Each structure stands twice: as structure tokens, then as C-alpha cells.
Amino acid sequence: MKKFVKLAALAAAAVMGASSLAGCGSDDTLVMGTNAAFPPFEYTTTNGLVDEFDGIDVAIAKKIAESMGKQLTIEDMEFDGLVASVSTGKVDMAVAGMTVTPERLENVDFSDPYYVATQVMVVAADDDTITKAEDLKNGKKVGVVLGYTGDTIVTETLQIPEENIVRANRGIDVVQDVKNGKLDAVVLDSATGKALAENNGLKVVEDPEVFESEEYAIAVQKGNTELLDQINEVLSEMTANGEIEALAEKYDGAAAE
Ligand code: GLN
């Protein structure tokens, strides 16, 4: 009997094909890697004693899992480790408000984009010295999140000197530093920057000439076309029927602590 079970399991694995062998989820789970400190896309809410994940990306990932008849499992980790976790198969996909960049494309494949964002500056409500990105070069102390596109822009595009950059693992940590006067500005993605600014009595300054638009997409292991096709199908359905837009509205400014 035991042997039969084993053989049956092997046969099932063979039927599941390459993608389930390459991925880390079992046959009935789909593992999403994320950094749940990025409202309104992913964050934790405390309902009673149990922390729960919520946000636009979590809702999208649930739909993807559902479409495959799988249970969604969420691995919360530092943003900087996500690409490696996808490329080594530790997680099946990264759904993390992740911008498609040429560097990341060297290590993972991306789905079709599902959201367009840009970087913004979060500054004190009464600050009138920062009205454009160039102003950050006037000796301002700038916070970013390690490995985010905002980090690249501040470091490489604006070339802010290293001694004036503070890198944190979560947006809220550097935003708190603007609140308590330790930093002059934080460069962060638009929706998250807006949510964190609103909840902390700060304001957002935009500069579309310097901060170009960025596309968020879902990352999968290189060559995992089976999962990628499935994701794209769900995304195109959710875009066409207005579900993604509805999610963006629903979560606007959500849980930005
Ligand atoms: N969009 C930014 C990036 O990809 C930040 C993403 C995030 O913090 N989750 O770098």
C-alpha cells in the first residue's frame, strides 16, 4: 500500500510538469515572496492576535492561486532578497510592487505590467526648500529603502553623496526620520509615499521630469513560462474587467503604519 502511494505521488509529480518541480510550492500551494511593508500593495494588519497580510498585491496573488486551484502562502522577507529568492526557487513568484528593471531582468522573468508608478519625495509639511529633485543635492539628508528603485535614483541619477543617504529596510523607518527631523526627505514609490505621508502628517513633492514612470510586474524564475502564462492570463482578465483599478481605489491610503 505504501509503495502504491509513493508511486502515485511520483506519477502526480510527473504530470504536474517542470514548473512545479522548479518552483518551491507543493502541488497545492503557490508561494509568494514579498516585503509586507509597502502599503497599499502589501502590509500586515493585526486582527486580534494573528497578523494577516493584505493589500493590492495580496489580492492579485490570491486570484492567481485561485485560478490554479492552489492555496496562497506568503513569505515575508527583505525586499533586497526577493530577486534571489525567485531565481533560486525559494519562492514561486515575487509580488511586491516590483519595478521591472534591466538589472532584475538578468535574473528573473517578469509578467506583463499591472501598475504604473513613479518616485516621489516625502518631506515635512512646512518644508519650502524642496520643490524639485535637484534640491536634494543642496546637502539634504535623504532616506531610501535598500535596493528599491528610489535607492538607485538617489545614488546613481542624482548622485547624492553617500554621507547624506540613509538606507533602511522599510519605508516607514525613514519616513519616521523625516517626521522627527533626522532626515529632510525620503524618495519612495508614489502610492506608498502618499499613504505614508498622509498617515504621518507629511507632504509629497513630485518631479516627473526626474522621476520617470515605473512599471510594476510579478517576477518568476527564468524560464517558468507555465506560471508566467497563468499570471498574465489572470492579470489581463483583472485589467480588462476593472478589478485592478477597483483594488487600487479600495486600498488607496490603506494601513500606512
Ligand atoms: N517599486 C520599487 C522597486 O521595485 C519598490 C518596491 C517595494 O518596495 N516593494 O524597487
Automatic annotation (TrEMBL):
GO terms for cellular component: membrane. InterPro entries: Iontro_rcpt_C, Solute-binding_3/MltF_N. One of its GO terms (molecular function) is ligand-gated monoatomic ion channel activity. Keywords: Signal. Residues 29-252 form the Ionotropic glutamate receptor C-terminal domain. Pfam families: SBP_bac_3. Residues 29-255 form the Solute-binding protein family 3/N-terminal domain. The keyword Metal-binding does not apply. Residues 1-22 form the signal peptide. It comes from the Bacteria. This is Basic amino acid ABC transporter substrate-binding protein. It comes from Candidatus Ornithomonoglobus intestinigallinarum. The lineage of its organism: Bacteria, Bacillati, Bacillota, Clostridia, Candidatus Ornithomonoglobus.
